[in-house]
Amino acid sequence: MMERALERWRCGVKTHTYEARVHWTTPDGEGTKGYKSYRRDHTINADGKHEILASSDPAFRGDASRYNPEVLLVASLSSCHMLWYLHLCSVSGIRVLDYRDAASGTMEESADGSAQFVRAELRPIVTIARGNDRARALGLHHDAHRLCFIARSVNFQVEVAPEVAEA
């Protein structure tokens, strides 16, 4: 495996590895005795970061007060797009003052209980400094979407419907 990573590096491809730990346990010792009997609550950890309290979506018997994998996927798409967009604006001379996104994702569930995301929509609202190129700021969303490695990694459509306003 190390040889393959070294060969990719020689070819100009950098490899990055990300690790997370997920932990679930049963507080009552009963475990997964029955579908309705176990809690979906679990934790997500990564070195040097705050713990994330997670569960499944309430539609799947989860705790609504905790993050679920579906929300985290949509948030990852939104965050990745934003970070690329801010980078592109900074190197293009566009001064962003505020960035907000109300992202959403649509998942379809089959009769057998399997499911998959079929689309996601990012709706960033960006405020730029007065006198900046609004058309260029809007166009950089296209480039950010093309470069976002999370959007490039999913097998469903991710639409970006941005708005740019001048302060």
- Give the structural class: alpha/beta
Q: What best-fitting shape do the alpha-carbon axes yield?
A: globular
Q: Outline the biggest β-sheet.
A: 3 strands, antiparallel
Number of helix segments? 4
Question: Low-confidence stretches at least 5 residues in length (pLDDT < 50)?
Answer: none
Mean pLDDT: 91
Radius of gyration equals 20 Å
- Number of domain modules: 2
Look at the structure and name the CATH superfamily of the largest domain. Answer: K homology (KH) domain
* CATH classification class of the largest domain: Alpha Beta
Helix content: 25-40%
Q: Tally of extended strands?
A: 9
Strand numbers in spatial order across the main sheet: 1-2-3
Tell me the series of helices and strands, N- to C-terminal: HEEEHEEEEHHEE
Question: What layout of secondary structure does this protein have?
Answer:
Blueprint: H1 2-10, E1 21-23, E2 42-45, E3 52-54, H2 69-92, E4 96-101, E5 104-109, E6 115-122, E7 124-128, H3 134-147, H4 149-153, E8 157-160, E9 163-166
Parallel strand pairs: 6-8, 7-9
Antiparallel strand pairs: 1-2, 2-3, 4-7, 5-6
Helix pairs in contact: 2-3
